[in-house]
């Protein structure tokens, strides 16, 4: 029973990370209808930036995360302006090919700049907390709480701010948003910026409990796509729920066999495509 609850905590940690990554991916899809295959590699860059801010420049953990998030916000805007915005009127396949190109470019650049070695980000929160007999590291507690704070903050931003409401309006009805004068370019840039910032935050939180290496974004990317298919493409609640479903499923299957952890995502994908291909929170056709 203790192992069950221990894996439940591990599942919540995984689900928190997956949800943050999937939120950014599904926001971009909801606004631009673009499956951004490079999203996982933004996650990778975010982890490296936090790592080097701490190891090379001596920043402490939280300032390093803030710098990483701000840098990824800028990178997200640059990618949107230079790569995806020029393709907005082209067939969707062009933007998808461009996303694959960006993904390959980012991974190759990371290998050239930082090598292919596996690195570890040392967390200042290595202590262990005992909760009802369960031993949980402080870093894992920080991941769960920080992810919840970010998700609540994002929801408040989208629901309460004018800028956030323009993003929601465009996600719900693109043509209607154009008719009322919403600036699609600004919404598109802002969406990319938020998505990249969320990826950097997720990577920075997860880096102390995982390893940092150039291809780390590939598996995260695949799982994020499974999550948004599970939750419904473009659905924010679906991304959060899907992230926790996948994280908890991986945690539970680890009780049986740790080698099967990565298989769970693809098993869920097959099941959801067979039973509910539009996802749990499918958006209505626009």
Automatic annotation (TrEMBL):
It holds the Pfam family BPD_transp_2. CDD domains: TM_PBP1_LivH_like (cd06582). It is found in: Cell membrane. InterPro entries: ABC_transp_permease, BCAA_transport_permease. Signal peptide: none annotated. The keyword Ribonucleoprotein does not apply. GO terms for molecular function: transmembrane transporter activity. Keywords: Amino-acid transport, Cell membrane, Membrane, Transmembrane, Transmembrane helix, Transport. It is a multi-pass membrane protein. GO terms for cellular component: plasma membrane. The chain crosses the membrane at residues 12-32, 38-57, 64-84, 96-114, 141-158, 189-213, 225-247, 263-282. One of its GO terms (biological process) is amino acid transport. PANTHER family: ABC TRANSPORTER PERMEASE PROTEIN, BRANCHED-CHAIN AMINO ACID TRANSPORT SYSTEM PERMEASE PROTEIN LIVH. This is Branched-chain amino acid ABC transporter permease.
């Amino acid at each position: 029973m203790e192992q069950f609850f221990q894996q439940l905590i591990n599942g919540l940690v995984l689900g928190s990370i997956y949800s943050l990554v999937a939120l950014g991916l599904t926001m971009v899809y909801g606004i631009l209808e673009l499956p951004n295959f490079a999203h996982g590699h933004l996650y990778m860059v975010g982890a490296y930036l936090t790592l080097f801010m701490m190891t090379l420049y001596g920043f402490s953990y939280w300032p390093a995360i803030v710098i990483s998030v701000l840098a990824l916000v800028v990178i997200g805007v640059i990618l949107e302006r230079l790569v995806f915005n020029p393709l907005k009127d082209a067939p969707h396949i062009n933007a998808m090919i461009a996303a694959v190109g960006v993904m390959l470019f980012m991974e190759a650049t990371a290998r050239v700049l930082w090598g292919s070695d596996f690195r570890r980000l040392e967390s200042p929160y290595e202590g262990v907390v005992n909760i009802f007999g369960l031993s949980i590291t402080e870093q894992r507690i920080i991941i769960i709480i920080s992810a919840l704070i970010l998700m609540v903050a994002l929801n408040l931003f989208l629901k309460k701010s004018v800028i956030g409401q323009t993003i929601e309006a465009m996600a719900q009805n693109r043509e209607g948003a154009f008719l009322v004068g919403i600036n699609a370019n600004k919404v598109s840039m802002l969406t990319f910026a938020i998505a990249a910032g969320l990826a950097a935050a997720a990577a920075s939180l997860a880096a102390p409990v995982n390893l940092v290496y150039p291809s780390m974004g590939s598996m995260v990317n695949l799982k994020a796509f499974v999550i948004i298919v599970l939750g419904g493409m473009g659905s924010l609640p679906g991304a959060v729920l899907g992230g926790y479903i996948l994280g908890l499923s991986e945690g539970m299957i680890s009780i049986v066999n740790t080698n099967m952890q990565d298989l769970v995502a693809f098993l869920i994908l097959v099941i959801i495509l067979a039973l509910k291909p539009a996802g749990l929170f499918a958006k209505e056709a626009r």
